[in-house]
Structure formats: C-alpha cells, structure tokens
Amino acid sequence: MAVKVLLSRKFDHTHERIMFDEFCKKLFNHYHDSSELYLCIGNLHVEGREIDAVLIKRNAITIFEFKNYGGTLTFHENGDWPITTFEDGISNTVSVRGGAHENPYQQVRNNKFSLLNTLNLFANLQNTNLGHISGIVLFSKDIEFDPFSITPRIASWFHVTDLNHLIEKVNQITSTGINLSKDEIKDFQRIFNLGAEYEHTVPYEFQVQSIKDETNDPEEIALDNVVNETEVTDKNGINGNSVEDIIQGSGYNVIHRDLLPERPEEALSINDLSLSSGNQNYLNTAVGGKIYKHQYKALELLKEGYNVCLATSTSSGKSFSFLYSSA
C-alpha cells in the first residue's frame, strides 16, 4: 500500500473531519500507486500539543495545521494574520487563529519542536536530521498569498497553501537531511503506539481498483464492459411484484438500469487453496470439496491480505452480506 492513514483520535469539529477526509482523498488519488510509502497520521498529540496531521515520506516529515478560511492572506511572524474576503463588493477581514498561539506560524513552530523532541527520545532514525521537519498551514478554501512575505530562513521549512495546491506543495517539499527507509516510516506507528485499530479506511474506489488490476479473467473483464438496455421483465417478481415495484413502493425512483447477462454457476476445487485441515474436512463433507468461483476468489484475496465483503441472495428472497477481515 503506497498510502497508509492512521487517525490517533477523532477530530472534535465537523470542519476538521471534512478537511481531513479531503486531505486523505487527495493523498490516495495521487500516491496510491506510488512505489514509495506515504504515511499520514491525523490528530496526533505530542507533548500535550495537538497536530492536525503529520505526513511522512522518504525525504520529508511535514506537520500540518488545518484552517477553515479562504481569501487574501497576510503573513506575519509576530501578531495576527488578517485574511480578507470580498462578496458583492463588500470586504470582510478576520484574523486567522493559531489555537492558543498568537498566529498559525507560532502554532506550527511550537508543534514542530514538540514532534522533534518526541522523535529524538523514541525514534531510531539512521539518516535523518530532525531539524529538517517542515510545516504547512493548510487552508480549506482558496487563498491569495505572497510567498515572498516569509523571510528565506523561515521559508526553508515553513509553508502556506490551500487544499487545491496541496499535492503540488507536498511534491515540492524534500530535504537532503531526511532519508527514511520504508521500515523507518512504518515504525512511526509503533513510536506513537497506534495499533491496527487506528488505521483509517482506504477509500472504496482504491480498494476496488487494486483488486481489478489483478483480475485477468476474460469473463470478468467482459462482464465489466457489458451495458444491456433491454427492458426489464417481471420474471423475477416477488409475490407478484417486480423489483422495480418494490423499490418505488418504498419511496424511491429507478433512474437508470443496466442488465447483466446471467453467468452459469461454476464450482472450483478447494485443493489449491491450502486451507487448514479443519476447513478442508468441513468443505469436503458439506459441499464435496468444491465452492463457487466468487467464494474461491474471496478466499484468494483474504490470503493476499485484502478485506473482503461478499453479498449473496437466497432462493427465498433473503439477502446476506458477509464481511471478512484479513487481520
């Protein structure tokens, strides 16, 4: 997995959750097939300070502070950060808060050194100068900002951007003082005591893509491309009602429908799955040692480390969904 996301604890505010979700989607969208590992930790507490996100990659460790603003921004090392919006010819200026600090720069600076101190104590990083940790103030809405208003010394590690330019900024930030191996990146999970239960769900579209990419079955590929607009009949009705009648009777409308051709049942032998002796004996007794193709595929995916959801229907009209974790 090229992108792994951990959430140390749930965010307190709705806008933080929304922004973190957008942040993660952009990471998955751009780096899910990268050969390098990107580890994101959300809402991390270090030395009593809250950091909205930390992104670790091979050549950078970057902390993020989320701000739910947009407009024309003015940076100050000291004092407040005014940001101005214009609507219907009327301007409105507010100050961007920095938590308990005077402004976001001071917030990020203090958070940087809290993270640095923690890693100095608990991490064993061979080729990394922790003084090269970078920081970003990330705005949820578009901003106009003069990057040259930040002095060169501060600009060497401190950045300001918005969600629409997030990936561009992440790609720009690299340091010759940081060279992390994949094992060192993965070890951040241990350093901050974040077990598997803290792992954030991979967006569905990237789970599906990774499975489809490994599917070479011509029948599966053909099925993905079928679009059949033949009129639906009532042959599969329940108690005289078609599926469409049942849906519309529940207050919903059918706006589009694709019919897929029925596929013949296909059973495969379990001999090549290397199941435990107990499972092997049970399936030999219960189903003669053969299972349906989709069940066989599900077991293969579980063995490869995927989480699997199976949905099936019975002849009596019941539907069941089964979720199996690879862990």
UniProtKB/TrEMBL annotation:
TM spans, by residue? none
On the tree of life, the source organism's domain of life is Bacteria
Q: What Pfam families does the database record attribute to this sequence?
A: NERD (PF08378)
Give start and end of each NERD domain: 31-140
The protein's matches in Gene3D superfamilies, at most eight in alphabetical order, are given as: P-loop containing nucleotide triphosphate hydrolases (3.40.50.300)
Point out the coiled-coil segments of this chain.
Answer: none
Alphabetized InterPro entries for the sequence: NERD, P-loop_NTPase
Which named protein is this? Answer: NERD domain-containing protein
* Native source species: Nitritalea halalkaliphila LW7
